[in-house]
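look at this:
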Amino acid sequence: MVRRKQLLSALAVAVAVGVAGCSAQPGTAAVVNGTRITQDQLDDATLEYVDLTGQPAEPTVVLNTLIAADVFPAIAAKHGLALSDQQVEQRFEDLAQQQGVKVPDGGFSPAFIGLGHYLFAAAAAQQSPDAQAVSEEFSAAMADARIEVNPRYGEASKEGAIQPIQHPWIAQTPEAAPQG
């Protein structure tokens, strides 16, 4: 009986650590090359994106973009495609005005500005004469990046993109259960 309790306790601790993920820091959505992306940053960026565009956004997609936003700016700068925080904020303000949306009190969050750095530079890169080189450098940088993702979002592939995962210890809903 004591042995069973010890085994159950050990299992509970292992599950808790596995669920916590990302360097065991509570509230962490991902860590990219040692830089932490918090759950609050992900929530802010997701909400601001939805508010600004009026389009739904899955947190995993936004997290993928925030991860890319941590890697891409150095490549963008090297190719003359980087924008300042003020330029990104101005573009978002212009977009808000076009959409008839109010800019958040206090401006956009740092996470959303980071997201903008990636989105605007990536769009410029596609139009650049160096588009192929930029794409190759970015792919290589993503593959080389040290990326840890909170298991609730999936896991990072070797290319750096988040892939959903099925945990055998999470019960499937009856609709999702395989039909036998």
Observations:
- The chain has six helices and five strands.
- The mean pLDDT is 83.
